[in-house]
Amino acid sequence: RAKKKGRNQFEMAKVEVNAGAFERLIIENDLRKAIDNHQLSISYQPQLDLKTNRILGFEALLRWNHPDFGMIPPSDFIPIAEETGLILPIGDWVLKNACLQIKQWERAGFYSLHVAVNLSAQQFLQKNIVEKIEAVIKETKIDPSLLELEITESMVIHDIDSAVSVLQQLKDLGVQISIDDFGTGYSSLNYLKKLPVNTLKIDRSFIFDIDINPSSKALTTAITTLAHDLNLNVVAEGVETYKQLSYVKKSSCDAVQGFYFSKPLPSANVIDFLNKTKKVVQKNA
Ligand code: C2E
Ligand code: MG
Ligand code: MG
Ligand code: MG
């Protein structure tokens, strides 16, 4: 009896594993067609300048509305996109559509709003990444200073010298560069002074307990002081509460992004949001 039960359990486990693999295969296969089938979209999360209380711009966050599984979060499909190389066409799609969005906001009377686009390591390591970005800027006719590219520490530590060279070429195009999830990666402060970047985004793991954990507060303040000494801007990610906001302000962060102000918004809702906040840079303002 015990033996039989054991075998059934084993078979059950095997079926589950295969189901997982099967589901992954479906996801992988469907992801290939997601762009053509218009299942991808971009949500936009506002970033607020703490000195002027103005909306600086938005971070572009990819969404996949799967016909059977519904909304699949990026954490579930971006790793698959990276493993399969699909992140390259998907990344191109995000970049182009984020730039087109800037023009749409301008047509609606909202100028100077930037868009931050997350780059994955594979995109960043493409031989022609600089040419690609330059081509998108030309094609969509955006002001390059409104495009911000988010990279992570892990993308630059393997080969700092070539990362510095690519980042400098990107900066020469006029785009802004930020380091995302700062503080969670390799975090050698030594390389930071070499990197031609504009902004550090403090990871939300430091923000979520900033009002109750003295270490998180100390780290946020230290990162901000360091960044300002290096002439970098600091954005606090993941601000969810008023208390967190006040601590972030006390730590002298320049800008915030988080659910306290807004969740990422479907692009159709952004104009509404901007009209409601009334503190954005408008034409002739
Ligand atoms: P990220 O770049 O660090 O983006 C911020 C994430 O934090 C977003 O999750 C956002 O919804 C979430 N967030 C913002 N404010 C709050 C808050 O107050 N509380 C909490 N709990 N979460 C908050 P999302 O949209 O699920 O994206 C997850 C990650 O997927 C992103 O992290 C980014 O690394 C990646 N990702 C998203 N879109 C793209 C893309 O187009 N390309 C690439 N390569 N990666 C992307
Ligand atoms: Mg990001
Ligand atoms: Mg990121
Ligand atoms: Mg982040």
TrEMBL record:
Coiled-coil positions are none
**Ranges that cross the membrane:** none
Source taxon at top rank: Bacteria
Protein name (record): EAL domain-containing protein
Which stretch of the full sequence is covered here?
257 to 541 of 541
